[in-house]
Request: fold
Amino acid sequence: MSETKIELLSAKAICEIYKIPKSTVYELLHQKGCPIIKGGNGKKFLVEKSEFEKWLKNSR
Reply:
């Protein structure tokens, strides 16, 4: 059986990878359709990298 590795990104990681300000990241995370996964008690945002990249590409 093959396991698929899922890479999750935090808001901080998104800032670092895509070189965009934190405020812009939070604007993106709050847009309708953004594939967010809320972690912890709902205060930490996580997104699956591949899904986020697809969404980002298609939302332009």
